[in-house]
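Continuing the batch. This is chain 6 of the set; chains 1 through 5 are on the previous pages. Same settings as before, nothing changed between runs. Recording input and output for traceability.
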Amino acid sequence: MINYAKHDEEFHGIFKLVSGEEVLAKAVLTEDKGETLLFISDPVSVLPITKEIGEQKILRGMGFSKWIPMSDEEFYIHHFKVCMEAEKIEESSSLNLNNCDKNNKQKFILQNDGKIQPKENLNLCLTVSDNFSEGGGGSPVHLIRALSLEKCDDALLSYQKWGIRTN
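Output for chain 6:
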């Protein structure tokens, strides 16, 4: 448990990731089932900048770059270093994980109402299947469900609305 920062209030900090990388980001701490979770947004890498400006003169400073240079339209899975990609931008197309290459099948918009839609066709919504199989672990057991693009439909709202879990 992290108890030296206020929970559920945004703050800025430098965070060392399990990969060894350090990022500067806006963050919020929250509790979930007795475990402290840290959510970071807009992380940047701090870069040293050195520029020669003449004989025996060097300018040194710090700069920032996006930690992972992705657009806001890509759903990037950091652990696997892949992006969500539609097989096709049409109804009943499945979703896969592929190398990120900024193609149109990887561009999605998370709408304010919780729908995730392909940028190329806002009549379609990311939809989770009603069918499932049990995963290989976890408590409770994780469920594996297929994802597809289907016509956005209020009758399917419980399968087409996405969000970020909080307390």
